[in-house]
Design goal:
With 273 residues, the chain is mainly alpha-helical. Helices cover 70% and strands 2% of the residues. The protein is globular. The model has no long low-confidence stretch (mean pLDDT 83). It has twelve helices and two strands, in the order αββααααααααααα.
Length: 273
Amino acid sequence: KFTAKIVIYSAMIYSILPLILVAIASFRIRNPSNGTHSYSTTAWQEAWSGNYSTTGIPDALLNSLTYCLITLVIALPVGYVIASCITRLESENKKNMAKLVEFTTMVPLALSAVMIGLGILIGLLKWAPSLFSWMLIPALPHIIITTPFVIRIMLPAIRSLEPEYYEQAQMLGLSPIRAWWHGRVSILRAPIVVSAALTMAFSLGEFGASWILVRSGSWDSLSVLVDQLMSQPKFNPMIQPMAMAAATTLMGLTFVLFIVAEKFRHSDEGSGF
């Protein structure tokens, strides 16, 4: 038992300590004259106002939230529909077709975000260069990347559904939409909330494709803002704490989403996580 406790506590510290250190680093300011360090909120004020960067934390946060909400509105229903189609193919004994659809929709998980961003970039430049100036384009790779996660979470939950619930809702004389809502969606509430929370968290933290597609400072997401600050020379003592402030903001937001996902996650509902 003692060894097991050591392993568990070590794993917890290993997971949480980097997050704590990032938050502390956002307040730790280096004094260039003597190399000492002091603690203040100056870096947060500078990062919030957008000094030394093309955009501040509020604008970057707004862009990140815009991208993740667009991703949620599209990826969640698309993932649900695809998972439902796979389940229907399986129930109709079309196993090979179901496996093909499932494998095809999981392909983005095998690709890096940078490759997806490059593919979209090349496609836009070749077929629709006018769309390249549209600020919502960075949401497209987020949708491509997160939809497979929605499918992976929803698929076992939909497979475990009892069709009798939907049939009973129809027998009660409910309209098709209300029968679908009460006979399927209400039962899948927990997996849907988990899918939504993780979709938003993955979208907020996505960097590779966003960095490829963002070409204007006014479109920077929080992850791009962190990279933008960290790539600057460190002779300015404010740069690294400002980057850590932006990273802490992103970390806090995604941490809240994961707490929401864990609150609604039930292992007996086949939510997949």
